[in-house]
Design brief:
- The chain is α+β, with helices and mostly antiparallel strands and about 550 residues long.
- Among the domains are: about 210 residues, FAD/NAD(P)-binding domain, CATH 3.50.50; about 90 residues, Alpha-Beta Plaits, CATH 3.30.70.
- The protein is built from 15 helices and 24 strands.
- Strands 1, 2, 8, 9, 10, 13, 19 and 20 form an 8-stranded mixed sheet that branches. A 7-stranded mixed sheet has the order 6-5-15-16-17-14-18. A 3-stranded antiparallel sheet has the order 3-7-4, with no helix packed on it.
- Helix 7 crosses helix 8.
- The longest helix is centred in the middle third of the chain and has 20 residues.
- The radius of gyration is 23 Å and the shape is globular.
- The mean pLDDT is about 95.
Length: about 550
């Protein structure tokens, strides 16, 4: 549908108000003030407000935020709970064994870090950015990349509002807006809708390992004050996952008697009967975990994909007219289970390159200074030391743990070899006939829960009269391939009950029902669908979860 759109022009447009995008905006304005050279910066965010779509564990390394805002403590940044104790447990079904502190690799030690709500840190960063003059527009989803005649990125367009399910404009129709810029920075987070397109268009992943992902599920609990230990950080591996499936858990004691509890499953798992959501619920029943949670109250839930391939899978970061920053590129350090410091650092590095280009009156070329700065940064060194973690853990819990210990303790991450990932996550699923079904216990509504009650407390909402943002390349694939060969894995890997197979009322045949209104924007379906038939596109701006302090 061709519509006439208004346009706005800026020096730099940033897609996504997460830690990477806001760090970039802040750094641009800091440089503008230092050099007395005005730079117009705009940030657009698909969430209803800054922080609404932000979900992370999270333990934060303050190195990057200290570089960006040295007096963050005096300015009241919500890094309130320093890590007081690390525990790493290997779980069996009924027992656990704690790894002695002297045996823990450095990547699992968190002295000097902080237990945080990343959503609250992002809200604080948003306030700093706006105070510096950054224009931030929450509730506007970047739906389309705009290119000039030479093929360079010249900006983005927000999605049209008020389109009905039939694809036709309703009475509430409002056309999208074109946001044009000298440079556009993409900071959408893991498996960004536009970042995915840019990687394909400019062949940015050429020569790199296939990207690998995990799904992270998280609940926020208010627990008995007698059980609360501010700054306690607990990580686990092992049960309930089998030894061939990559994954683990976190339990972080925050302030105000709150505990963040979460579970990560690598999306290269093989058994189509596996349900990451139900594994998470089952994990909470372990004696070492339920002891903290019993008598408490669950107050929030969410899920999000994690870009975990590390430096081996990093795409080329720049292209004519823009750059990828943060998890849109994949800067998370999977061995440390940390990405927010990397997001802030890469946002800052990209901003410095963009500022120099704007001052030099350049437009729509490649910001070569950004990847050059990354190559000489402490972040590159950190990620290089962690490069073997994910490929090693792909060899199973026991062999992987042994290899990681050798790599991180003996070689300090500087082993004279590099292991590689061979194929993308969607290619690992085995046919259902080759796998054992998994029986999950029914939720009790106190410690364990179902998907729909979980989605309810994620405050997820979408305008119902809009086209589904969960699209299929071929409508026949879900039944003829996914259900027939893989027992319909989308009904299990989705953590929000979006996909279910039902019988057609008229024919009695199986069909896939997509409950798009439940979607928490985790992107798992876009990653794990075995034939890549599901394509996640942005819904109307403001739709999706509304996380409080996740």
């Amino acid at each position: 549908m061709e519509v006439e759109r208004e346009s706005m022009e800026f020096d730099v447009v940033i897609v996504g108000a997460g830690p990477a995008g806001l760090a970039a905006a802040i750094r641009l304005k800091q440089l503008a003030a230092e050099r007395e050279h005005e730079v117009n910066v705009c940030v657009i965010e698909k969430g209803s407000e800054i922080g609404a779509h932000i979900l992370s564990g999270a333990v934060m390394d303050p190195r990057a935020i200290t570089e960006l805002i040295p007096d963050w403590k005096e300015q009241g940044a919500p890094l309130n709970t320093p890590v007081a104790e690390d525990r790493f447990l290997f779980l069996t079904e009924s027992g656990s064994r704690q790894v002695p502190d002297w045996m823990l690799p450095g990547c699992f030690k968190n002295h000097g870090n902080y237990v945080i709500s990343l959503a609250n840190v992002v809200r604080w960063l948003g306030e700093r950015a706006e105070a510096l003059g950054v224009e931030i527009y929450p509730g506007f989803a970047a739906a389309e990349i705009l290119y000039d005649e030479q093929g360079a990125v010249r900006g983005v367009a927000t999605g049209n509002m008020g389109i009905g399910k039939d694809g036709e404009p309703t009475d509430a129709f409002q056309p999208g807006i074109e946001l044009l810029a000298r440079y556009t920075l993409f900071a959408e987070g893991s498996r960004g809708h536009l970042g995915k397109q840019l990687i394909a268009r400019f062949d940015l992943a050429k020569g790199r390992d296939p990207q690998s992902y995990g799904i992270g599920l998280k609940e926020l609990w208010e627990i008995d004050p007698a059980k609360h230990k501010p700054g306690l950080v607990v990580h686990t591996a092992g049960w309930p996952l089998d030894s061939d499936t990559y994954g683990g858990s976190f339990l972080y004691h925050m302030e105000d008697n709150q505990v963040a509890v979460g579970f990560v499953v690598g999306l290269n798992y093989k058994n189509p009967y596996l349900s990451p959501f139900d594994e998470f619920q089952r994990y909470k029943t372990h004696p070492s975990i339920r002891a903290f949670l019993e008598g408490g109250k669950r107050i929030a839930y969410g899920a999000r994909a994690i870009t975990a391939g590390g430096i081996n899978s990093l795409p080329r970061l720049v292209f004519p007219g823009g750059a990828l920053v943060g998890c849109d590129a994949g800067f998370l350090n999977a061995s440390r289970i940390k990405g927010s410091h990397a997001a802030i650092k890469t946002g800052s590095l990209a901003a410095e390159a963009a500022f120099e280009a704007v001052v030099a009156d350049r437009s729509h070329d490649e910001l070569a200074a950004y990847p050059q700065r990354f190559q000489t940064s402490w972040l590159h060194d950190e990620l290089h030391r962690a490069r073997n973690f994910k490929p090693m853990m792909g060899k199973g819990l026991y062999m992987g743990t042994l290899l990681v210990g050798i790599d991180q303790v003996l070689f300090k991450g500087k082993a004279p070899f590099t292991l590689h990932t061979e194929k993308p996550d969607n290619e690992y699923l085995r046919p259902a006939a080759e796998c054992q079904p998994i029986q999950y216990p029914k939720p009790d509504g106190k410690l364990t829960f179902d998907k729909l009650s979980s989605v309810f407390i994620s405050n997820t909402n979408h305008e119902e009269n809009q086209p589904s943002h969960l699209t299929l390349r071929n409508d026949s694939v879900p039944v003829q391939t996914n259900l027939a060969k893989y027992a319909g894995p989308e009904q299990r890997y989705c953590p929000a009950g979006v996909y279910e197979f039902v019988k057609d009322d008229d024919t009695g045949a199986d069909k896939l029902q997509i409950n798009a209104q439940n979607c928490v924007h985790c992107k798992t379906c876009d990653i794990k669908d075995p034939t890549q038939n599901i394509v996640w596109v942005v819904p109307e701006g403001g739709g999706g979860p509304n996380y409080p302090n996740m």
